[in-house]
């Protein structure tokens, strides 16, 4: 991941927009993402990660 986190891309959960840098409050954004394209897929990435973690948790029990 890039060192310059302030200039990376974020997905604003409130507006559905991609932002570069710390534009909105942290409670409204997820990221960081290295590219705008990756940030545009934020919801897809979050769903995939959530499913993966749920599967891992289920296999541990």
UniProtKB/TrEMBL annotation:
This is SPOR domain-containing protein. It comes from Agromyces humatus. The lineage of its organism: Bacteria, Bacillati, Actinomycetota, Actinomycetes, Micrococcales.
